[in-house]
Write a structure and sequence with these properties.
With 336 residues, the chain is of the alpha+beta class. Helix content is 19%, strand content 30%. The protein has a single domain, classed as RutC-like (60s Ribosomal Protein L30, Chain: A), CATH 3.30.1330. The strands form four sheets. A six-stranded mixed sheet has the order 5-6-7-10-8-9, with helices on one face. Strands 11-12-13-18-16-17 form a six-stranded mixed sheet, with helices on one face. A four-stranded mixed sheet has the order 1-4-2-3, with no helix packed on it. The protein binds 3-(2-carboxyethyl)benzoic acid.
Length: 336
């Protein structure tokens, strides 16, 4: 029932085809990357234009819940909801809106207004994928304009406790802005990182509107949703020009966050996404991952631009996701 407490929410990287996951009634969302093949007009699907940095077929990211999922679409927004959780995605072309600042405000207004009117009204985790994120100089940089538009919408809708988030640059279709969210019927608990200044307190030098996100969000079921984490210590970027050292610093930040949340080390239930700015840095980043992660930790490397141009790598993901039952989710009406 939609008003009930949220049950378990799980995330896994799975090999294709996506149809095998979409036929399950407990699948909340299926995300594909790069040129992944996904069905058109399926509100649970989103194709993110970030190229996987691996040979062979890229896996899909599958979100599952405990309960049957409903879904729909309205204009630029599509959604799916069930088991106390909601996936909401807004995909739009920023050009007719006059650029990234207006487009991000518009996307956030659509998404936040949608969530506010639903039982799953708590927006816990957001992903933002915009084209050419570092284009433009100084305060005209597109990421900084994005932050201005985002903050204007959050302020307009009275959101004072920011969700966890990632904001990454893509090289896909011109003008394509994607914002998607995980929402729940219960609130989460936002967490900050003791090694980092809270993003909304960044000093003026990083732009006219500070980035509005929490470093992590404890979900109602106890798992942790971790925001994009880079080599930012205090508010400054560290190890400029050294991708391996940046990845190591990102792990120092991630481990500080896990400590603060009193969660164990990353394991098989901690899928991570690793955004690498330069394809040729992938092997150096893989080596750092191998040093810091148990081999059981699922990881997906994607080519993506980080919001500060000197940052070369960023990691986001999950910790301590519940292990959901795999039986009984088929929508083919297995009757026991
Ligand atoms: C940082 O620590 C790196 O603007 O939503 C990470 C996660 C970053 C989310 C956002 C930005 C965002 O500031 C950049």
């Amino acid at each position: 029932m939609s008003g009930a407490a949220a049950g378990g929410f799980s995330v896994a990287y799975r090999a294709g085809p996506a149809a095998a996951w979409l036929e399950r009634s407990d699948t909340l969302a299926v995300l594909g990357f790069g040129d992944a093949s996904l069905p058109d007009g399926e509100p649970r699907c989103l194709r993110v234009p970030l190229a996987p940095l691996a040979q062979g077929e890229a896996p899909f990211e599958c979100w599952r819940v405990q309960g049957a999922v409903e879904r729909g679409a309205e204009g630029d927004l599509h959604w799916a909801a069930g088991g106390g959780w909601r996936f909401v995605a807004v995909e739009l072309d920023e050009s007719p809106l006059g650029g990234i600042e207006a487009a991000s405000e518009h996307a956030y207004r659509l998404l936040l207004a949608h969530a506010a009117a639903r039982p799953e009204r708590h927006v816990l985790r957001l992903w933002n994928y915009l084209r050419a994120i570092n284009e433009g100089e100084g305060d005209a940089e597109r990421y900084r304009r994005f932050c201005v538009g985002r903050l204007r919408a959050l302020d307009a809708l009275g959101i004072e406790r920011y969700p966890a988030a990632s904001a990454i640059g893509h090289h896909g279709p011109r003008g394509l802005l994607q914002v998607y969210a995980l929402c729940a019927v219960q609130r989460g608990e936002a967490m900050e990182n003791p090694r980092q200044v809270s993003a909304w307190h960044y000093p003026r030098q990083y732009g006219p509107a500070a980035p509005s996100f929490a470093r992590a969000m404890k979900l109602p079921d106890g798992a942790l949703a971790i925001s994009g984490t880079a080599a930012v210590v205090g508010h400054a970027s560290h190890h400029v020009g050294d991708v391996g050292a940046q990845a190591g610093e990102a792990f120092a930040n991630l481990h500080a966050l896990l400590d603060r949340a009193e969660l164990p080390a990353f394991d098989a239930h901690s899928p991570l996404k690793v955004y690498v700015r330069h394809r040729e840095d992938a092997d150096a980043v893989r080596a750092v991952l191998a040093r810091h992660l148990d081999p059981a930790v699922p990881r997906l490397l994607l080519q993506g631009d980080i919001c500060r141009r000197e940052l070369l790598v960023e990691i986001d993901g999950w910790s301590s996701l519940p292990r959901l039952r795999t039986a009984g989710g088929s929508s083919r009406g297995k009757r026991g």
